[in-house]
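Task card 7
Instruction: Convert sequence to structure tokens.
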Amino acid sequence: MAKHSSGICYLAGAGPGDLGLVTLKTRAAIENAEVIVYDYLCNAEMLAWAPPKAEIIYAGKKAGAHTLSQEEINALLVAKTREGKRVVRLKGGDPFLFGRGGEEAEALAKAGLPFEVIPGVTSALAAPAYAGIPVTHRGHNAQLTIFTGHEETEPAGEGARIDYAAIARGPGTKVMLMGIERLESIATRLLEEGASPDLPVALVRWGTTGRQRTLRGTLSGIARSAKETGFAAPAVAVFGSVAALEEGLNWFESKPLFGRKVAVTRSRRQAGALSEQLRALGADVYELPTIRIEPPANLLEFGELVRDAHTYDWVVFTSPNGVDAFFELFYKIYDDAREIGGVRIAAVGPATAARIKEFHLHVDLQPEQAVAESLVKAFTKDGSVENQKILVVRPETARDLLSKELTKMGAIVDEAIAYRTVPETDAAAVARFREEGADFVTFTSSSTVENFLALNLPLPDGARTASIGPVTSKTMRSLGMKVDVEAKRHDIEGLAEAIRNAYARS
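Output:
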């Protein structure tokens, strides 16, 4: 097949695990990719940034289990790039630091294909940092050595062999990537080459993620401790006096939700805000999407109501999704915000109000509580709505209480069905839920509850549930599900705070 001039391959570092450590350039590459080839150590949640039609290929390699050989990966990258595709090769950490990115670059160069390298944050630095270990410290060292614990079985150049004598006798900090399964033999080799048995060692597993674990010891006993505690790959090993610097520096593992596993059941598009807040509190978060947001069944009717919004006295928004759907269509019809006219705007809840304000519009009415009943009361206090035209922007399956109550008050109410929620199933997320369970499962709407139950996933032993508010809680109870925690403030910030407070009380 002839080479297409637009084909290019990006060898991109996916970082050490924390999505916040993925570079802007790597994210931009993912967002514009046509093909993504990713590794075992990549946080798969970044794949949500990819276009819906992108081809996603898993090429994971871990000890004893290779999906594709390196030669097959090289050939795959060449073939996809030669087809004229924008290919993103995601590699955990940095592509050129023991990631075999150099070999992939050589294969592309040999084929005469364009490529770019996007460096990434390496776990050699990030994992120790998240464990409170500064790999360099003026009071301890001025030298850093990074080596791999994987010695290739196939023939390699003389310069590719590991010089354990130099590592054992050399000054400064040494960081080993991979090779935890060979830790006993590596420690023995270092001792044989003259390293001190009392040399401080720290192992950091799944560094920068909510699954992070740190094990500390000395060179003579660390392999035994790792075996006794079941400490396994993927992990980074730090050798040197800085590995003993623990008191007050282990900032990440001191976070309030550290070590707590939380499953977020929102739609994939919406889950990010809640996931980010929980990760900031140290939780091990994974998204278990149960719903997907889609346009309404009658998009033409919705468009006509959006077009005529300026003819109403009030527009009422019941969710951030409704705000997004409304203004996405509004700005396809109009190019000036003033076309909405003198209509007054009401919002159910702070999250909805905040989303409206992002469109530089004022919210005239917002109840104290983020429920329809509170908004009805707010309208009552605001004054009469008799004979006023009110447009209620809501999802397809929402309660019609608001419209009914406003109609009883004498208003002329139209409903703009802005979107619908449909069931979503992520096989990988479901498998992880079955295998690992969760300490908390969050629910942010009645539809997330209903579709979670439709997956027939029993709550793990000891798992607790967290509801965003009374409407969601009512649905949970009506379907036989317990409600362990309910947010006092019925928004994402309130839900994250409720989970944090649940552990503060326990």
